[in-house]
Amino acid sequence: MKKVILCKYGEIVLKGANKSRFESMLLKELRRRAARVGEFKIYYAQSTVYVEPIDPDMPESDFEEMYTQTKKVFGFAGVTVAACAEKNMEDILRVTKEYIPEKLAGVKTFRCVAKRSDKKFSLSSPEIAAEAGGAILSVMHKNIKVDLHNPEVEVRVEVREKEAYIHAGQEKGAGGNPLGSAGRGLLLLSGGIDSPVAGFMMAKRGMYIDALHFESFPYTSERAREKVLQLARELTEYTGRIRVHVISLTHIQEVLRDNCDEDYFTLLLRRFMMELAVRLAKEYEIPAIITGESLGQVASQTLQALCVTDAVADIPVFRPCIGMDKDEIVAISRKIGTFETSILPYEDCCTVFTPRHPRTKPMIEKVVAQEEKIDRAALLEEAWDSRYSVVIHQFED
Ligand code: ATP
Ligand code: MG
User: Fold this and answer.
1) Could you tell me if the CB of 181 is within 6 A of ligand 1?
2) What secondary structure letter does DSSP report for 13?
3) Rounded to an integer, what distance in angstroms lies between the CA atom of residue 259 and that of residue 317?
4) Whole-number Å distance between alpha carbons of 248 and 220
5) Please, are residues 37 and 52 in contact by the beta-carbon 8 Å criterion?
6) Ligand 1 centre from 349 Cα, in Å?
7) Which atom in ligand 1 lies closest to the alpha carbon of residue 195?
8) Average pLDDT of 186-193?
């Protein structure tokens, strides 16, 4: 039996004249992944991308791996494995009987729906659905019932241009828009829970992600850096590739500790981080910054504190977690597979020399007055010179 993976468009169906640009991004991303799995013919028609093994005897495990990959491609609302039939009712029923019962194992109720994009097909959609439903009942006997209103599983028969496709239990796709359709963003990546989620969310909206991590060696360890690289590696499951830039804040933090009012440490540090991030973004022609901040989560994330940080940024700063509770962020982090790494207990540069009473309603004038006590420009230059980067690929050999 010939099988094919069907990937159904999400928001792309709404695109007008640009649609084919989005479609070619979807194909590019699927082909990149397929190249590691096996030989597939990948093409689109009627708001669906078809991923078809070239060798009909492809090992099931390779086919399954490709299916898993399709679930991580942004831009699809749903994915499913369908069995192919010739465009006549006899073959459609033959394939339905052969393919669908295993999909309905242990299921108590189903309904069958049909879609006919080939209007010349001899039967109407309701007729196709009724016949296919009858065929399923005839082979599954009394073990299953039809429930038209609230079935456990929906079986679909789609009569399309070339062939008919029969499938059951379509799964949710990754959603969002194709990678690259929304440009690039520079993710400030700490070792915490929130920033990988923020990166994922913007990648889902179509952004390629670069990451910037600040470290403070020897106050932060080699293992803390490894943890961040591991988080980036986990994000590449979705983004394909991430360049991780690393900048050292050690000297800045020591100078702040020795010269400035402790209550302002975090704010002062965050302004250094933001300014370095903007400079790096411009150097790499990245138009926006992304952080994992959530309003009011900690002292540096009050509205006033965020304004003080943003005052040094002259490019957009995206904060996709801004309106989310921690438990909502955690739920996404578990879903995308970064949570277990995020909770490894290594220190972050933001947690060394943390003030006992951080300012939650800072006034910008007071922050600037603190900055006047140090040679900010020289410190920025020194930190800038410490930068290096590594590129992480989803498939590393
Ligand atoms: P996270 O779980 O992402 O670490 P958090 O709640 O611990 O977030 P903060 O430590 O205040 O919050 O950091 C807020 C945001 O600032 C992070 O989400 C991240 O975008 C950025 N950030 C913090 N520390 C670093 C770092 N060492 N390197 C790069 N970015 C950082
Ligand atoms: Mg953090």
Assistant:
1) no
2) G
3) 29
4) 10
5) no
6) 9
7) 3
8) 96
Tell me which residue has its CA closest to atom 7 in ligand 1. Answer: 192
Q: pTM for the full model?
A: 0.95
* Residue closest by Cα to atom 31 of ligand 1: 190
Instruction: Specify the long-range contacts of residues 370-375, CB closer than 8 Å, at least 24 apart.
Output: 370/260, 370/261, 370/264, 370/268, 371/268, 371/271, 373/259, 373/260, 374/255, 374/256, 374/259, 374/260
* Overall size of the chain counted in residues: 397
Instruction: Give SS3 for 213.
Output: strand
CA atoms in the 13 A half-sphere facing the CB of 222:
0
Atom of ligand 1 nearest to the CA of 300: 11
What torsion do the CA atoms of 302, 307, 310, 311 make, to the nearest 10 degrees? -150
91 pLDDT more than 90: yes
Whether the CB-CB separation of 82 and 167 falls below 8 Å is answered with yes
Which ligand is located closest to the Cα atom of residue 196? 1
Q: Is the CB of 322 under 6 A from ligand 1?
A: no
Distance 214 CA to ligand 1 centre (A): 9
Please tell me the distance from the alpha carbon of residue 5 to that of residue 142, in angstroms, as a whole number. Answer: 30
Judge whether residue 209 has pLDDT over 90.
yes
Task: Give the residue from 94, 100, 97, 98 showing the smallest Cα distance to 80.
Answer: 100
Residue 146 β-bridge partners: 110
pLDDT number for residue 249: 97
* Number of the ligand 1 atom closest to the C-alpha atom of 266: 11
Say yes or no: CB of residue 300 within 6 Å of ligand 1.
yes
Would the CB of 348 count as within 6 Å of ligand 1?
yes
| DSSP per-residue string spanning 93-151 | HHHHHHHHHHHTTT--EEEEEEEES-TTSSS-HHHHHHHHHHHHHHHHGGG-EE-SSS-
Compute the distance between CA of residue 335 and CA of residue 279 in angstroms, rounded to an integer: 33
231 Cβ inside 6 Å of ligand 1: no
CA of 262 to the centre of ligand 1 (A): 19
Ligand 2 centroid – CA 292 distance (Å): 8
Q: pLDDT, tens digit, for every residue of 167-187?
A: 999 999 999 999 999 999 999
